[in-house]
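Entry type: protein chain
Record version: 2
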Amino acid sequence: MNDEAEFRDSIPLLVAEQAHQVRRVTWVGLALNLFLAAAKFAGGVLGSSQAVVADAVHSLSDTLTDIAVLLGVRYWSAPADAGHPYGHHRIETLITAGIGLILGVVGVAIGYTAITSVRSVHQQQPGWIAFGAAGLSIVLKEWLYRWTVAVGRRIRSSALVANAWHHRSDSISSYPAAVAVVITLIDRKLSYVDHIGALIVSLFILHAAWSIVKPAFYELADTGAPDDVRTLIRDVGLSTPEVTSVHAIRTRRMGSSVFVDLHITVDGATSVARGHEISEIVSARIRAQVPDVIDVVVHLEPHDHVSDDD
């Protein structure tokens, strides 16, 4: 069928464009993260703020995930081959999970340092330079988050969206760091607030890590698509002329893509050629009408042999 050929021919072009968008956004993010990590570390050290130094470490961890995305996109965007007949989409999922785990380790380390040093007294009162570094991070990382998540959602890249949330967690974590600096500037006796600020930063980081890791682990465990997606698949199949029932629907997520297996029944007197044509129509319609579906395997059965399994 012409539609089938056009769909398959368009996949490599779409994947190549998606990979280009991922690289472009991530290179900008990497450069900005290196700049902010250096600025916040300098501001935290010169301004005697543990919270801002902790925030600098967070920005530095962002550079690691940027590098992981830049290296990974080369592999997950590769076409299917004999060894990977379903493509390499799971590499994107592994990188997404890796980003979340790195973020979690950073959060635990920052939280541990904050708790064990909460009784420590600053030798010097935090300075405004620390506040300025935190404020700069809030503005730039929020902008980077909005841009990255918009591109990630448009091209349906889970790794890019995960990296965007890593950026936002950096922006959010700068708020308690900035507030802690201001409070300590008002009264040096409240220097412990700076350590509490670092602890709050770690909690924000851990929450972001869990939000990234949870869906990635579900995918690696082969969790199927939600019920509403399965219902849509069934409705699209049943709306195809000559299809009498749709059952045994199975779905699998791989990266941003969904693979579908299903059984359809037609009149037992239908010729093999016509049955094959109906199957191709069902496959094309599901790919066109169900978001993220890129492959559909249709098993054809005569109506009088319909299975009771769903």
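Comment: The chain has two domains: 2-220, 227-305.
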